[in-house]
Amino acid sequence: MIMFCILAVVILGSAVMCVTTTRIMRAATFMLFVLFGVAGLYFLLDYTYLGAAQISVYAGGVTMIYVFAIQLVSKRTLQGLTERIKCSRAIWGGLLAVIGCATVVLVLLKNQFLFVGNAVPDAELPMKTIGKALVGSGRYEYVLAFEFISLFLLACIIGGLVVSRKEEEK
Fold first, then answer.
1. How far apart are CA 120 and CA 124, in angstroms?
2. Domains in the chain: how many in total?
3. Rounded Cα gap, residues 79 and 81, in angstroms
4. Based on the domain organization, do 5 and 74 belong to the same domain?
5. C-alpha closest to that of 152 among 30, 70, 66, 38
6. Distance, first Cα to last Cα, the chain
């Protein structure tokens, strides 16, 4: 429980700092801390495969692509790049956040997730069943999620290449 609380504080603190900082490299660094914290939660739950995937795919791959793209952008482009928060945008953002939280609470109440408690399964699942669920294509299997992750990484790579291209001078 103590380790969970430490990881939760690190994740929440880094997420808030990632969103509120004005420096783009600091935001990428704080995002890296958030992703490592989530991997720590996976390891805490003894989901070593998901923890390793979190570190290799997200913390390693996506964050490095972001940092690579940031480094390729010229310093002139990044200098003075601060965005002023308009009151109307803050109100709309707050309204959307409240609507999102209300939706999550309604789904949890409808499906009675809040009242389950600490239900422990009767028997431990064998690793073969978990592996089949991760890469299977049937109902309640997750190969589609892995395909979306690969498309996401491909989009990040293409975005990095587009950013790295120099504009032709006319």
1. 10
2. 2
3. 5
4. yes
5. 66
6. 62
59 Cβ contact list (under 8 Å, min separation 6): 32, 35, 36, 39
Read off the pTM: 0.53
Coil, helix or strand at residue 15: helix
Q: Give the angle subtended at the CA of 12 by the CAs of 10 and 13, to the nearest 5°.
A: 65
Q: Report residue 115's pLDDT band, with 50, 70 and 90 as the boundaries.
A: low
Please count the residues of the chain: 170
For 51, the domain range is 1-84
Q: Can you read off the two tokens belonging to residue 111?
A: 């499906």
Amino acid type, 54: Q
Return d(Cα 98, Cα 8) in angstroms, integer: 22
The whole-number pLDDT of residue 76 equals 58
Query: Which residue, 74, 43, 39, is CA-closest to 60?
Result: 39
